Every structure is written in structure tokens, then in C-alpha cells.
């Protein structure tokens, strides 16, 4: 029988590696969808017993509570350093960090850049929602010019706060980075593409090709103070202009 018409493939089910714990994410948040993709990819690669995720400080601090693999918690921004140690000590394990833009592009910029420059065989999953979601919607280095946040209520003024930091563009220049891509999860088509990108990144890490960084240009319905529908629209109309989707580097 054709795979597509098998009854089990007609059921839209939860990934096997996701447990029944209720998620704390807001309705419409990108984190939940990315969690699902990570769980599916690890399962499909048969790596559930051999994957270690490094959970960050930020809204994804409870990631360990949702995906049934091994996890290690890291201090704010330090996930790539912890991942470096874990991967070097356990080269056969698949190791990834899962970091927000406040975590990765503010307090953890140094750890991120140096891990990528060393070409650690890890995957960095980067959730860029242009805001500090967990702490109440403060400005992040990635906040768009003119974007209103709790700490720039008149909109980000680049003369005061500088320009939105395009971390993926920086990482492209580093010799240790083998794959850098920008994805999103606001449509079914985008989700499909994003899953392929994640799989490629995880395969790179096991093939010892260097560091792969998968940026998810994401929404934050609470921080942006928008409905899920409007947040997705705002993402397409504003975020993609600054953070265009697609592969930036694929060695
Ligand atoms: C050392 C340290 N500094 C500051 C904080 C406060 N803090 C918690 S989460 C966070 C920002 C999280 O933003 P982001 O990484 O973008 O994740 P999001 O919640 O948006 O997914 C900050 C500043 C902290 N917990 N520890
Ligand atoms: Mg954020």
C-alpha cells in the first residue's frame, strides 16, 4: 500500500517523544511548533536514546519537561559552552542547544560566536522572536527598528540602542559553521521546510561537519501584544524584511 494512504499516516498525532505534560507556552507561540519538529526529527533519526539537548534561560526553560530525551540546563547564554563539553566527552551523542534571542544574541553572544568559530559538532536552534518573552517583553538586540517593547515604549531608536543584530549573518563568516539557515513555522509549508532544515543540521552534527545554526524567525504573541493570527501576519510583513528566510550557508 502507498505510504500516504496507510491509516496510521492519516492520523495527525503528537510526536512520540513528546509527553503529556501541558505546555506553558502561550497559544500561537512558535516554541511549541519547533519543539514538535525537534521531537519528530530525533525520533525519525532513531536517536532518542542518544540525544542531549541543552535548555536555556528564557521561555524554553522547561523544554526538558516536554520532549523525552536527555537534557542539561545551562546558565543564561552559556548553552553552547555546555554543549561543547558534552559533545567532546560524548562524541557519539547528538547534541543541540535551544536558545532564544535574548539568550543567544545578548548575554550569550560570545559563547555562540566562539562555539561556531571552533566548529563544534553541535546544532544551535535559535528562536528569534525579537524580544525577551519570558521576562515580560523587553527589547532584545534583535528587536526591529521602531518596534515597541516594554523597555522602548516609543519604538526602538537605533541612535540610542543600535541596529537589530543579525546573528546568522555573522555566523556565516565563521569557518567552523557548516550550515546556517533561517526558517519559520507560521504556515504549514514553512513547517515542512523547517523540519527538513533541522534534519539536515542534526545530520551535519553526526557527520562531524561543524556547527549548524537553525534560526527560527518567530512570534511572541504576549510580548508583541497581538493575537496569534495578527502576530503571524506581522511576522511576515516586518520580521522577514530584516531576517529573510532561506539557507545562508550550506557547505
Ligand atoms: C544571568 C541572568 N540574567 C538575566 C536573567 C533574566 N532573564 C530571564 S529570561 C531572559 C530573556 C529571555 O529572552 P529570550 O532568550 O529571547 O527567550 P524568549 O523568552 O523570548 O523565548 C532574561 C533576561 C536571568 N534569568 N539570568
Ligand atoms: Mg526572545
Describe the structure.
This protein is α/β, with parallel strands linked by helices. The chain has a single domain, classed as Rossmann fold. Helix content is about 40%, strand content about 15%. It contains ten helices and seven strands. Helix 2 packs across helix 8 and helix 4 crosses helix 5. The structure holds thiamine diphosphate (TPP) and magnesium ion.
Task: Tell me the name of the CATH class.
Answer: Alpha Beta
Count of runs of 4 or more consecutive helical residues: 10
Contiguous uncertain segments of 5+ residues: none
Roughly how much helix do the residues carry, as a percent range? 25-40%
Keywords:
7 strands; single chain; Rossmann fold; alpha/beta; binds thiamine diphosphate; 7-stranded mixed β-sheet
Helix and strand topology:
Blueprint lengths: L6 H4 L19 H15 L6 E5 L14 E4 L5 H11 L4 E7 H7 L1 H10 L4 E6 L29 H4 L5 H6 L4 E7 L4 H19 L4 E7 L3 H4 L3 H15 L3 E5 L1
Parallel strand pairs: 1-2, 1-3, 3-4, 4-6, 5-6
Antiparallel strand pairs: 5-7
Helix pairs in contact: 2-8, 4-5
Bound molecules: thiamine diphosphate and magnesium ion.
Thiamine diphosphate binds next to helix 4.
Amino acid at each position: 500500500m502507498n505510504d500516504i494512504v496507510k491509516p496510521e499516516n492519516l492520523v495527525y498525532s503528537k510526536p512520540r517523544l513528546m509527553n503529556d505534560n501541558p505546555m506553558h507556552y502561550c497559544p500561537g507561540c512558535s516554541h511549541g511548533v519547533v519543539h514538535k519538529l525537534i521531537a519528530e526529527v530525533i525520533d525519525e533519526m532513531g536517536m532518542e536514546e542518544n540525544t542531549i539537548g541543552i535548555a536555556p534561560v528564557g521561555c524554553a526553560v522547561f523544554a526538558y519537561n516536554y520532549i523525552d530525551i536527555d537534557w542539561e540546563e545551562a546558565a543564561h547564554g552559556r548553552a553552547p559552552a555546555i554543549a561543547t563539553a558534552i559533545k567532546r566527552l560524548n562524541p557519539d551523542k547528538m547534541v543541540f542547544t535551544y536558545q532564544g534571542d535574548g539568550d543567544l544574541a545578548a548575554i550569550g553572544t560570545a559563547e555562540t560566536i566562539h562555539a561556531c568559530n571552533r566548529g563544534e559538532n553541535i546544532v544551535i536552534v535559535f528562536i528569534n522572536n525579537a524580544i525577551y518573552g519570558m521576562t515580560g517583553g523587553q527589547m532584545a538586540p534583535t528587536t526591529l527598528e521602531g518596534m515597541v517593547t516594554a523597555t522602548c515604549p516609543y519604538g526602538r531608536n537605533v541612535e540610542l540602542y543600535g541596529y537589530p543584530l543579525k546573528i546568522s549573518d555573522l555566523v556565516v563568516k565563521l569557518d567552523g559553521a557548516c550550515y546556517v539557515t533561517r526558517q519559520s513555522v507560521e504556515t504549514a509549508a514553512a513547517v515542512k521546510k523547517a523540519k527538513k532544515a533541522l534534519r539536515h543540521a542534526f545530520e551535519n552534527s553526526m557527520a562531524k561537519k561543524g556547527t549548524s545554526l537553525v534560526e527560527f524567525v518567530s512570534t511572541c504573541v504576549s510580548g508583541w501584544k497581538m493575537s496569534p493570527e495578527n502576530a503571524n501576519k506581522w511576522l511576515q510583513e516586518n520580521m522577514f524584511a530584516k531576517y529573510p528566510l532561506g539557507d545562508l550557508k550550506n557547505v
